[in-house]
Specification:
Blueprint lengths: L1 H16 L3 H15 L5 H18 L4 H17 L7 H20 L3 H18 L2 H17 L3 H18 L2 H18 L2 H114 L5 H8 L1 H10 L5 H11 L4 H8 L3 H14 L8 H6 L2
Helix pairs in contact: 1-2, 1-3, 2-3, 3-4, 3-5, 4-5, 5-6, 5-7, 6-7, 7-8, 7-9, 8-9, 9-10, 10-11, 11-12, 14-15
Length: about 400
């Protein structure tokens, strides 16, 4: 994972150099994600957050953005206990401090800038990185340039330029020559200004020649990566569509099956219910016939004043006597027989005729039953018995 992260970081640096800033940013973040699985996560984060800060500074975003990422880089650098005192840790420490010093230099915070430049120098003394030392010299030169100490600025810029010339670092030389042209213009040294302009022109021709082929190779790589990402997304999309279609098909099949099963079940249930209803209707009809026959039989026994009347009445209407006795358990047999006649809707005249008594006696017995069963005087007696 360390090696993978390092490779991705370097690809990001290539993109950054070719001004493919979004692609570079993506690579730096990818390197950090890979670094999460590495034991050197703090070092990887320090290095890549520093690169992100440098990128934001290059694209001229607000200085706060670059400063934020430089500070994050410095935090992880200080947290990297695993690489304590190693060359690579001192190198990244010197780089981060150099960048922080430059941020403060640009904001004219001279004391803060010098503080970080001094820390960068201490780290680089341990790292012994000549090119990084030259970069630091150049940044210090810029600090003195902003402080209007042009002679000191020239000293540091010339010192940096000499190292870059020895290392043949044409990109850093381009920066050095540009700064020295500005400086000598202020100092009024036209000869040096012309000399550096010629050198800058020669260097920029080399840079353009290199960048032409390098940019083509870098763009090819970017296109390949984008195509690969697109291909993976396309494959994933095909899989998603296939899965959705399969799920939809299964849902349709299940819905059709469920509907058919439910329909069949409903039909069987409906048929069963119809059979039950038909059977109940038959039973009800038969019951009605039996009830009608029983009713006619009981009525006839009552008309004949038969001793069997009350016995047969209790067989046909057992619930009537039970309901009456719940209200008044003290009623005697003759009173219950009289209640049966009322239940069968016999009038006062009919009862008098069939029991061989006077209508007045029947009326008195009605009043007595009304009192014993607590039936209000304003309630129809026949209706009351009908509702038992």
């Amino acid at each position: 994972m360390d090696l993978k992260s390092e490779i991705i970081t370097n690809i990001g640096n290539c993109y950054h150099q070719q001004s493919l800033y979004n692609d570079a940013l993506e690579k730096y973040r990818e390197a950090i994600r890979l670094g999460e699985l590495s034991e050197e996560i703090n070092y990887i984060k320090a290095k890549n957050y520093n690169n992100i800060g440098n990128l934001y500074e290059t694209v001229k975003t607000p200085k706060d953005s670059a400063y934020y990422y430089y500070c994050k880089a410095y935090y992880y650098f200080k947290s990297d206990y695993k690489n304590t005192q190693t060359q690579k840790k001192n190198t990244i420490g010197a780089t981060i401090c150099t960048n922080l010093g430059e941020v403060w230099s640009t904001n004219s915070r001279i004391d803060s800038s010098k503080y970080y430049f001094n820390k960068a120098a201490l780290y680089n003394n341990k790292a012994k990185d000549i090119t990084l030392g030259a970069v630091l010299e150049q940044k210090i030169g810029v600090l003195y340039y902003h402080s209007h100490d042009y002679k000191t600025a020239e000293y540091h810029l010339e010192k940096a330029k000499t190292v870059f010339e020895e290392k043949e670092d044409i990109y850093k030389l381009s920066e050095s020559y540009t700064l020295l042209i500005k400086l000598n213009k202020i100092l009024g040294n036209e000869k040096k200004q012309t000399e550096y302009k010629d050198l800058l022109f020669t260097i920029e021709k080399k840079i353009n020649a290199i960048q032409g082929s390098a940019r083509a190779a870098t763009l090819d790589n970017v296109i390949k990566e984008k195509n690969e990402v697109f291909r993976k997304k396309e494959i994933r999309l095909y899989w998603i569509i296939t899965i959705i279609l399969l799920i939809t098909l299964l849902v349709i099949i299940f819905s059709v099956y469920s509907h058919k099963r439910k329909k069949d079940s409903s039909f069987l249930t409906l048929q069963k219910e119809r059979d039950i209803i038909q059977q109940k209707e038959i039973e009800t009809t038969e019951l009605k016939l039996k009830i009608n026959e029983s009713f006619d039989e009981v009525v006839q026994l009552a008309k004949d004043n038969s001793p069997e009347f009350f016995i047969r009445f209790q067989e046909v209407y057992p619930q009537v006597c039970s309901a009456i006795l719940k209200i008044n358990p003290q009623l005697i047999s003759s009173e219950l027989k009289f209640c049966a006649l009322l239940f069968l809707n016999f009038s006062t005249k009919d009862i008098a005729e069939y029991t061989f008594t006077s209508p007045k006696t029947v009326q008195n017995r009605k009043n007595g039953i009304r009192k014993k069963l607590n039936i209000p005087s304003d309630t129809d007696l026949y209706l009351w018995f009908k509702n038992l």
